[in-house]
Amino acid sequence: MAQTARIAILGASGYTGAELVRLIATHPGMTVTALTADRRAGEGMGAVFPHLRHLELPVLTRIEEVDPDQVDLYFCALPHATSQEVIKTLPRDKKIVDLSADFRLRDPDVYAEWYGRAHSAMDLQAEAVYGLTEFYRDEVRTARLVAGTGCNAATGNFAVLPLLVADVIDPDEIIINLAGSVSGAGRSAKEGMLHSEVSEGYHAYNVAKHRHLAEFAQEFSKVVGRPVEPTFVPHLLPQNRGILATVYVRGQAEAIHNALTDAYVDEPFLHVLPLGEAPATRHVRGSNYCHVGVVPDRRPDRAIVFAALDNLTKGSSGQALQNANLMLGFPETMGLTMAPLFP
Amino acid sequence: MAQTARIAILGASGYTGAELVRLIATHPGMTVTALTADRRAGEGMGAVFPHLRHLELPVLTRIEEVDPDQVDLYFCALPHATSQEVIKTLPRDKKIVDLSADFRLRDPDVYAEWYGRAHSAMDLQAEAVYGLTEFYRDEVRTARLVAGTGCNAATGNFAVLPLLVADVIDPDEIIINLAGSVSGAGRSAKEGMLHSEVSEGYHAYNVAKHRHLAEFAQEFSKVVGRPVEPTFVPHLLPQNRGILATVYVRGQAEAIHNALTDAYVDEPFLHVLPLGEAPATRHVRGSNYCHVGVVPDRRPDRAIVFAALDNLTKGSSGQALQNANLMLGFPETMGLTMAPLFP
Amino acid sequence: MAQTARIAILGASGYTGAELVRLIATHPGMTVTALTADRRAGEGMGAVFPHLRHLELPVLTRIEEVDPDQVDLYFCALPHATSQEVIKTLPRDKKIVDLSADFRLRDPDVYAEWYGRAHSAMDLQAEAVYGLTEFYRDEVRTARLVAGTGCNAATGNFAVLPLLVADVIDPDEIIINLAGSVSGAGRSAKEGMLHSEVSEGYHAYNVAKHRHLAEFAQEFSKVVGRPVEPTFVPHLLPQNRGILATVYVRGQAEAIHNALTDAYVDEPFLHVLPLGEAPATRHVRGSNYCHVGVVPDRRPDRAIVFAALDNLTKGSSGQALQNANLMLGFPETMGLTMAPLFP
Amino acid sequence: MAQTARIAILGASGYTGAELVRLIATHPGMTVTALTADRRAGEGMGAVFPHLRHLELPVLTRIEEVDPDQVDLYFCALPHATSQEVIKTLPRDKKIVDLSADFRLRDPDVYAEWYGRAHSAMDLQAEAVYGLTEFYRDEVRTARLVAGTGCNAATGNFAVLPLLVADVIDPDEIIINLAGSVSGAGRSAKEGMLHSEVSEGYHAYNVAKHRHLAEFAQEFSKVVGRPVEPTFVPHLLPQNRGILATVYVRGQAEAIHNALTDAYVDEPFLHVLPLGEAPATRHVRGSNYCHVGVVPDRRPDRAIVFAALDNLTKGSSGQALQNANLMLGFPETMGLTMAPLFP
Lengths: 343, 343, 343, 343
Fold this sequence. Notes:
4 copies of one chain form a homotetramer. Chain A is of the alpha/beta class. Chain A is built from 11 helices and 14 strands. Chain A has a 7-stranded parallel β-sheet. A 7-stranded mixed β-sheet of chain A has the order 9-10-8-11-14-13-12. At the A-B interface, β8, β9, β10, β11 and β14 of A face β8, β9, β10, β11 and β14 of B.
């Protein structure tokens, strides 16, 4: 095992930054040596996130004030577009886990189509590994730069990828109906995320045009070996954490269940429920676990596949820490085995 | 217009009973002359539902204490199976709107399959009209017994039926993903409906085997002229009121949007959003309005159709009152035009 | 009764503006002829508030575009400080109900102390009537300008004022512990009002320094005839609507209960619960009703007095409409008797 | 440090039992050897609490099936009254932490008054230590039987006890206004705890007669040396976890703040905020931390003292584990330093 690794978190005033601090607080092999937040520089983390006030943490600084000599690994929890600009400036010998969308899409044209601008760091993109740990474990282990997946993309991929690998569903008939939580939208003040708008307010958004659709297409196509794109409709739940993907597929439920069970039998964080059971967001909240379930449809040769995870943990900061563990030579599950918080 | 109609509500201690009282309280043509609740008989409605304490209402009684001579129309808000037993005992010259599941399914074998017992009042079933007002208006007007629809069934049917009538979608490729609220489960104490279980707890339930699926199959098949059954997966939201159906269909979005617009152009309670917009439960809460939307999928010849309504109002008690208005000769919208409560 | 009154709502893009539209939509004596919202001018109300999309309403305009000849009464739902600037410019022969804080405090020094600036329209302040209808009914009836009360102030005053009038409590020993809901903070995007911050997040704010404390002091002192100020601590609930004031007083519970019962016996919107019962916010939601309760403490000569109301209705827009009814010669309760929405 | 301690949890199908399992799952010195739940005997813990499905745990059994030779310490998470009957039957050489109300009140008459029956195990009561760790640490360390405090009692005591010890407030003028969460009511199905009743439903309950008042009186009187009883009014929040006590006291805010700071300076789980700041439940959720704050009132010689904690953790199961650590010779904070979960 490595010695204590020194960690810098760039963009620590958002929810994913705070979640990283929460997780690392009890990680036996890491210590936070730098926290940045340009607009809150000079403040203590406890002022920005009072739930962390019991921790001894470095004061928030500006990014340029971080001394790279005190850092073994950077977590970048910055907005997309900003992230690529910042990562370009970091020393090339430092490990980086990026939580933004900037390095997820391998094809620059696809990136430009979905994010509305040309990528400014294509050389970095070329070396980035897509951070869906369970499917890219070996690449992550040796990577210098890992791109955290979209939280919705992770959820859907956990439900679907093993089925494409095992060839037990029709790749052209995949419908991903997904419901996510408000923390996925971050901490910036937006009218649509006010309690009075969200509570009792369930609705779909970015229907058939959410950017994480590009990640589904990329990963599905890679497995199938030709362009494949699902239907994808995300909804906003009146809750803080949790994503549930409800995926409608064509195939035999039992074969589907077997494919998932086989794929995840040795995975510490992926749990496949007995055939016929469906998972719930409340049973993974605050944890790095993902629950997967399969229920046969009444109609033959159709099934519904579910995946539930916590968007801030397994869908984002927990995944990032899992990847960092691999990159730094720690056991993959270190600091990530806390049980979900229920109720 | 009729004179003031005298109303009895059987089963007034549940949420649909209370919702009927709420609506009738400001209905200019109705007065409540009897309220029953066997276990709460002798109590005032304000003790059972303090939000109604400002109203002058009859004391709760047992069903057998209701004097039929003081009743022009009965609303039956009793549990299914109980409802058919009670309605059998009511005078045959009284109008009845039933809110239970007992008279929704026209085929006794289908009823027995889904509800696990033979129907005990098939003669009444034979005369019952399915209470989806917008599609059975003429029958409702002359009916003696109207069967209120399932709240989920109403929501999905508003999204789908006009598309089958207009023949703009493939009837064999309909997937109804639906999310509903806790008030739909009624007021009886169940572990799964506790705040601590529901809050932050989104999940699917009765996957591909919810009883309202039988109503979809019945109504879809009737329009298409042959057996048709969709895939149907309901989910439970951490909110009190509201259902959103997200329906995945095969067809041209524009043709679908036109079919819905044409079907509902003169409907007072059905509003079709501009093509590309999706509705939200918060925008219909506490009202009898239903918002319908259509968004094209990225994939050709596919679309997503949405319908949002309040399960206790348009999905249940508001629908019941709308039907009662027709049966009693009142204007259909009387007492039902209050705007939604937001936030 | 007056003919149909023509209503302008200035500041219609906020929650109190939308609540006015909701209420007036079914008011038989009023019609909305103008709606303003500077930043949304040119848009339809249904675009800003989709729950009102079924209504035929004037397009949103800028304030200066409103034709006073088409207006009998203005509701001003503008931010404080802005409100006084706008009302100064309105014709002096028009009736106005202001929902801001600008005309609530009669003493200009007190206004300056709590709002941090000198008042710019003291002549208007001089004619303004404090809009706590139940205590200022006669003045409201003949007023040209009525100042809506703070929603918290209304709640606490309903619990306390009759006790000071009847001299059954010690005026120097009043502690008002209050819990309010997020809609009271309005629709502007603030980090502290995000769902992810509010949900599961109960806390006190503006402890012992909330501006509505000045209204308590003003009204209590007026009744008692000397300066009186309570302790006042507001808290933020994870819910959309509703305020509950829990008031700790010194006095005999029975005398207190009698004083409240006597004061409110003829009031259409104030309901005093039986001695020993405490009200709940869910039982007044969406309505103009206020529930008041008294429970004796275990310690002699102490009691707890509760008042619950909906901050957007009885605490703000419903109160405003109640006052407007009086000013325009309509029955005081017209358009305001809808039952609360529960659940 | 002791070897691995073998733990039995009696009453594992309730929320406090599940919370114990959650905490012990990552405790390096404990292992769960027995879990009981009479009505669920034979089932796996993952069936009762799916959020714990990733853990290897003993199957649920009946209490009499537990082998005492495999147990070093029992946690009793049984209903009150049941708990004393069960603990009577346990071997006298085993350590026990009871989470019920059965051994909290030292005076049998007070117990009988508040719980409506005579105590049946007064000899055990005589040896029980009141488990408010920060105030009974030495007694806990050597105790055989520790009585977990009421969650509300713990919260209020953390705010008040140091002030009585330091003699900086008037003991006869203490008003404890408290707001708690639904998980405090346990997992049994009750109408009043349904999501549809709780959400948007804030209200007071057991006003001035909640059983935890007896604990306040006991502890306050012990410190002051004569009978002292506060006013205590609990309220129910629409949230799952968290208690905030808002305590109105007579004394100088600065002296109060100093007394709390001095009392808690070396406490690992008690954090006193800077003078003038108030805590929030969201900042302690899921953790064993308690945040305490003091704000001066506008009126001289009065102040408001706040304490916030998680009722299931610091208020119940976390406190129990903290006590068990002491009883077993583990470091007091072992397994309890996870950061709060926010948002």
